[in-house]
Write a structure and sequence with these properties.
By secondary structure, the protein is an all-beta fold. The chain has one helix and 18 strands.
């Protein structure tokens, strides 16, 4: 008998693109591929031991040269530069009655901060494992780290905590008052409306 070949289209607009230096990773129609600018080659990444559900989000970690992959069924994979998959079924297999929706990923050093509809997951990319899980039972839209301070934009406003603290304890977090300090009188918003945040030139941008 002949062998089967897996094909899929690259024509649709990518839902995610990650620059990894010598190659660019992209997701289209829930499938992952990479483009090597040097030899202009394309490479498709398909796990051979099942678990190829549609990819929801990816993020590249430059410290470890690995790609974090989260699928539509909440399964988590880490792809190394040799093309090896490391599976982390923690979230997919979680039995808690929680909303497992994923909103964004922030990379800082070896750590990946995954913002979810129930809280925050920290993944150690070097060790291919979950470092800690913060089940806060409120939505976190985005996170970022600056000068050892972790910031989150959530449905309860913008909160901060030192990365040296136990971030799983909500009592360690401080809520920032952003909207009342808005210098633009014609621009009205609530802190709960903030969906993203990042630092640029030591200033927090929302």
């Amino acid at each position: 008998m002949g062998s089967w070949e897996t094909l899929f289209s690259y024509e649709n607009n990518p839902s995610y693109i990650c620059d990894a230096g010598d190659k660019v990773y992209a997701v289209t129609d829930g499938k992952l591929f990479s483009y090597n600018a040097g030899d202009k080659s394309l490479e498709i990444y398909i796990k051979q031991d099942s678990g190829n559900d549609s990819i929801q989000i990816i993020s590249y970690n430059s410290s470890t040269d690995k790609l974090l992959i989260i699928r539509s069924n909440s399964d988590i994979d880490i792809l190394d530069k040799s093309g090896n998959f490391f599976n982390i079924p923690f979230l997919k297999d979680a039995l808690q009655n929680i909303n497992k929706g994923i909103n964004s990923i922030h990379m800082n050093g070896d750590l990946a901060y995954v913002s979810t509809n129930f809280g925050l997951i920290t993944i150690n990319m070097a060790r291919n494992e979950v470092k800690e899980t913060c089940i806060f039972n409120f939505v976190i839209y985005a996170s970022c780290v600056h000068n050892n301070i972790l910031y989150i934009a959530s449905e309860n406003g913008v909160k901060t905590v030192s990365t040296k603290e136990n971030i799983q304890e909500l009592s360690k977090w401080t809520t920032l008052d952003i909207s009342s300090k808005n210098p633009f009188s014609d621009l009205r918003f609530s802190d709960k409306d903030i969906r993203d945040l990042a630092f640029f030139k030591d200033k927090l941008h929302l």
